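STRUCTURE REQUEST FORM
Protein name: Aryl-alcohol dehydrogenase-like predicted oxidoreductase
Source organism: Pseudonocardia cypriaca
Requested output: structure tokens
Priority: standard
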Amino acid sequence: MRYRLFGRTGLRVSDLFLGTMVLTDPGETRRIIDAYADAGGNVLDTASAYGDGEELLGSVLERRDRFVLATKYTLSRDARDPNAAGNHRKNLVFSLEQSLRRLRTDYIDVYWVHVWDRHTPLEETMRALDDAVRTGKILYVGISDAPAWVVSRANTLAQWRDWTPFAGLQVPYNLLQRDIERELLPMAEAFGMSVAAWAPLASGRLAGGSRRADPGSLTPRDEAAAAAVRAVADELGATAAQVALAWTRSRSPAVHPLVGVSSVEQLTENLGALDLVLPDDAVDRLEAAVGFERGFPADFIAECEPSPFVFGDHATAVVGR
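Status: completed
Returned output:
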């Protein structure tokens, strides 16, 4: 296992993040966490809305200081209470205290905003998060499932006002769902943010395709992607899951696959992706199997960059940083 810095901070996080959403059995949870730690993994990700997930994780977690413990807030705690959801200060304070109790800890290493709340001003959210950082109850902050312009504005506000900026972005990313390449991934790279990629196996559709999933639930596009992944896996002597995870890591050094497993065997298989380097031709074949267009403005700007009409006769002579 190798480590990278979490955003523009000094926090060391492992290449592979472990999601705990699907864990329900205390014994198996403890075995999975032990195997993950033995392999060098150190990021455990949960959320206030994952049923009894925080309680379970808090009950089995040992060597607390050795882990980067991450949880989220935003989602409703009580459907009848309008203030029991959202990114406002009241919900943040209550949710954070609840998570601390459930996780049996005095602080959260990474506190994620779970989803953008269009009704709460970004200034309120960022100031409330910064206040929690200053009290020591959380150490770093991140945001999940939000538009690029929201994250950009939030971090610009933080920069101007000396608040704690978002160091991480958590978004879905896999061979079948590459939308973040349009705006979110370039934005994260520009701000130096780490990207936790959830659903890197497309809910299992890339981890063996129709051999694991109900064939009737797979679209022709799903089938094409799964077939390409299996073909590359057979050539490289790897599993489909390992190829799919390796692909997400090949796209950007900012990306950390966030895997959810229900057994030590699944974890061991996923860890094998860390030693798998996909040849360029394999990456090309995987991407050609499903196709993807970034659309406007990314594709338009890419066409403009080498154009003398746009940037003059020396357009192709300018070397970037």
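Reviewer notes: Strands lie at 3-5, 12-14, 17-19, 43-45, 68-73, 108-113, 138-144, 166-172, 194-198, 255-260. Residues 3-288 form a domain with the TIM Barrel fold (CATH 3.20.20.100).
Form closed.
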